[in-house]
Amino acid sequence: MWQTATDADIAEVAAAIGDRSRAKVLMALAGGGVLPASALAAEAGVSVSTISGHLARLREAKLLTVEHDGRHRYYRLASTDVARALEELARIARPLPVTSLRDSVRNQALMRARLCYDHLAGRLGVVLLAALVDGDVLTGTAAGGYRITAAGLGRLAAFGIEVEEFSRRRPAIRYCVDWGERRHHLAGALGAAVADRLFALGWLRRGRARRVVHLTDEGRTGLNETFGVPLDWDEAE
C-alpha cells in the first residue's frame, strides 16, 4: 500500500531530533563531515558511554549513517534531506542564548559563511545565488524553479564545472531558505559542485569552528570577477 504524506511518522523523527544532545550531534554533522563518537560526545556535552544511546536512536530514525574504517566508526548525516530539514528547523526555532564572547564570534561566523551539508550557506551562499541569477547563469525564481541558462552552461564550464557530469545522479539545482538570511541559497548538485570548486581553487577554506568557512582574498576577487559577487558582500545588510 502506498503511503501518502499524512502517513509519514513525523512524530518519530521529531522525537529523535527533540533531545538537545541529539540536536547538537546533528548540527555538528550538518556541514557534511564525518566524526567519531568521541568527538560527537564532546559536541553534545555528554560522556562517550551516553552518546552511544543517542547515536543508536538517530540511526534508528534514519537520520545518521555509520562508516567503518578498521576498528573505528564514523558518523555522518544520512542524506542531504536531513541537512535541509535541519536548516528549515533552525529557521523557525528560537536562537540559543549567547553566553560567551566565543559563542558570539562563532555565531556571527556561521551566519556569514558556512556549509549546509555540501553547499554554501549563510550570507555568502545567499549573495552567490543572487549573483548567479543577476548574471544570467541561472534564471527563474523559487516559485517556478531555477534553471541553468545556455550562457550559464558555458560560464560554469569555464569555471571548471561540467553540469552533465553530475546532473544525471541528483537534481542539478535545489535551494534552501537560509535560516540566518531568510533568503535562498544554492543547493543541489550544482551547489555542491560550486563549493568543491571553490575549495579546489583555494578560494574557500574551512574555519576552526565546525561548518564555518572563510572566503580568501583570492576568492573574494575571483568570485567578483567570475560571477559578479560584490566585493563587500559581508558588509552589506
What would you note in describing this structure?
With 237 residues, the protein is of the alpha+beta class. The chain folds into 2 domains: 10-78, Arc Repressor Mutant, subunit A (Orthogonal Bundle), CATH 1.10.10; 102-227, no CATH class. The chain is 47% helix and 18% strand. The protein has helices spanning 10-18, 20-28, 37-44, 48-60, 80-92, 101-112, 122-134, 150-159, 188-201, 217-227, and strands spanning 35-36, 64-69, 72-77, 114-116, 119-121, 138-141, 145-148, 174-177, 184-187, 204-206, 213-215. It has a 3-stranded antiparallel sheet. β2 and β3 (72-77) form a beta hairpin. α2 (20-28) crosses α3 (37-44) and α3 (37-44) packs across α4. The protein is globular. The protein starts with 9 loop residues before the first helix and ends in a 10-residue tail after the last helix. The mean pLDDT is 89.
